[in-house]
Amino acid sequence: MDFSEISEELAEIEGQINDIFRALSNGFQKLEKIKDPNRRSRQLEELTDKMRECKRLIKEFERVMKEVESRNTQDANKKLNEKKQSMIKELNSYVALKKQHANSLENKRVDLFDGPGGGDGVGDEKVMLASTMTNQQLMDTGHQMMDETDQAIERSKKVVEDTVNVGAETAAALNAQTEQMNRIVNELDSIHFSIKKASQLVKEIGRSVATDRCIMALLFLIVIGVIAIIIVKIVNPHNKDIRDIPGFAPPVSRKLLWDPNGG
């Protein structure tokens, strides 16, 4: 039946499901040829992911089927229902095959179609081949597995959300620490600039003090020289080798124009 006549979306979903079934068939054939346990385990995980995607598409197929049910004829709805049951039956056959391979590998991890208790939701003695199950049993088993998978996905989502929250809090703390470090660096730069300016000021003061000392020493020498010259002139006023200092020259004898004794 061409589902595109009923709904383009149904036809697209059916095509995707058929592609996954072909991939599962090829994958399990490849799995039979793999001898290394680690590679078999990785291959089995990839197939489990494909079954998870197939389960999601079957639920989407069922949802769209219910939306267009009122517009379809009874015969079309019957064919849609038969197609859905056929897809569930085929998926369950791959689920059973996957369980057999998992048991042979003694794989203890919780897989997609296991129960929430951590072990196999259905014991080996209770595993029924899809070919021996009625349509109602297939539907019930498929819905049960889908519900268990949804619960596992919800738990995984919660773990992811918690991880994202922790990451956001860590990022906020790192941002705060980064801002604090930036402030500390700016303060250190200011301190370094102040120390540099202070060093320059100290050098200028040192140069100024050295200059003042030189001037004071020179003035002191000049004063000492002047005092020495004055002392020498006082002690030996007739010393011609030393020039007279203005204001300190000895008195000069003056001849009077009129001598009172001589007339």
From TrEMBL:
Residues 44-90 form a coiled coil. Residues 143-205 form the T-SNARE coiled-coil homology domain. PROSITE patterns: T_SNARE (PS50192). The keyword Membrane applies. One of its GO terms (molecular function) is SNARE binding. Keywords: Coiled coil, Membrane, Protein transport, Transmembrane, Transmembrane helix, Transport. It is a single-pass type IV membrane protein. The chain crosses the membrane at residues 215-235. It is found in: Membrane. One of its GO terms (cellular component) is endoplasmic reticulum membrane. The keyword Transport applies. GO terms for biological process: protein transport; vesicle fusion. Belongs to the novel plant SNARE family. This is Novel plant SNARE 11 isoform X1. The lineage of its organism: Eukaryota, Viridiplantae, Streptophyta, Embryophyta, Tracheophyta.
